[in-house]
């Protein structure tokens, strides 16, 4: 499973990237706001740091303006994936931009039918939002499973990018189902390493080691 990190915070991306945990980055207007940075500057810095796809989102809502914004964002670096909302205009822009050879991440997906038409419009990535479905009492993991089944039925190559991931269980379930990619905030990725029995076991080993009176170095 590919790991994308869902943030525009350079330091957090760099820390995970140094460990080989970053196959790509996703951003959105809310994450740009949170970073306090200029979108073009921070996105360029991220692209210089990370080899994989870096999603940068348009804010226009009409296809022509989305295409213009998408082309401008794509000029930042060859590894930009233009992020477009799953609207009819977004699908028009998706078709055109992928036809130009650009990567496109279609975002704000909340149904398998939306994912189906995004694939037909040539999307490189589809981003179903798990956490936001959970927020309204709909199981977000069911959506990942439905999209996986639909795409596999017909051999669509659009990659399922599980998004709005809020917990380590979301990561595990997405991996079980076979999402191609998951994007999560840095703190969720770091929590994947945590287990209370690891902490307890280490405490015991260190306590016993102290009793030996030995040193390694
Ligand atoms: O990747 C999409 C993500 O940024 C949205 O997450 O937690 O705001 O629903 P959230």
What does this structure look like?
The protein is of the alpha/beta class and 217 residues long. It has one domain (2-192): Aldolase class I (TIM Barrel). It is 53% helix and 17% strand. It has 11 helices and 8 strands. The chain has helices at 10-18, 29-35, 39-49, 63-74, 88-99, 112-120, 130-135, 140-154, 168-177, 186-191, 196-212; strands spanning 2-6, 24-26, 54-57, 80-85, 103-109, 125-128, 159-162, 181-184. It has an 8-stranded parallel barrel, surrounded by 6 helices. Helix 6 links the parallel strand 5 (103-109) and strand 6. Helix 1 packs parallel to helix 3 (39-49) and helix 8 runs parallel beside helix 9. It starts with a strand and ends in a 5-residue tail after the last helix. The mean pLDDT is 98.
Secondary-structure topology with pairs:
Elements: E1 2-6, H1 10-18, E2 24-26, H2 29-35, H3 39-49, E3 54-57, H4 63-74, E4 80-85, H5 88-99, E5 103-109, H6 112-120, E6 125-128, H7 130-135, H8 140-154, E7 159-162, H9 168-177, E8 181-184, H10 186-191, H11 196-212
Parallel strand pairs: 1-2, 1-8, 2-3, 3-4, 4-5, 5-6, 6-7, 7-8
Helix pairs in contact: 1-3, 4-5, 6-8, 8-9
The structure holds SN-glycerol-3-phosphate.
């Amino acid at each position: 499973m590919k790991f994308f990190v869902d943030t525009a915070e350079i330091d957090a991306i760099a820390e995970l990237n140094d460990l080989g945990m970053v196959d790509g980055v996703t951003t959105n207007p809310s994450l740009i706001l949170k970073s306090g940075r200029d979108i073009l500057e921070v996105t360029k810095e991220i692209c210089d740091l990370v080899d994989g796809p870096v999603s940068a989102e348009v804010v226009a809502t009409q296809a022509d303006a989305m295409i213009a914004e998408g082309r401008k964002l794509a000029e930042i670096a060859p590894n930009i994936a233009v992020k477009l909302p799953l609207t009819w205009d977004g699908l028009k822009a998706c078709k055109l931009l992928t036809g130009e050879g650009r990567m496109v991440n279609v975002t704000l997906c909340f149904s398998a039918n939306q994912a189906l038409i995004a694939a037909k419009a040539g999307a490189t990535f589809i981003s179903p939002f798990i956490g936001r479905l959970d927020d309204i009492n709909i199981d977000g993991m069911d959506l990942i499973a439905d999209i996986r089944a639909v795409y596999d039925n017909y051999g669509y190559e659009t990659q399922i990018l599980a998004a709005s991931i809020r917990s380590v269980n979301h990561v595990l379930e997405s991996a079980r189902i076979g999402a191609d990619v998951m994007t999560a905030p840095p703190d969720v990725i770091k929590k994947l390493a945590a287990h209370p029995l690891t902490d307890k076991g280490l405490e015991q080993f260190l306590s016993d080691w102290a009793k030996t009176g030995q040193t390694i170095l």
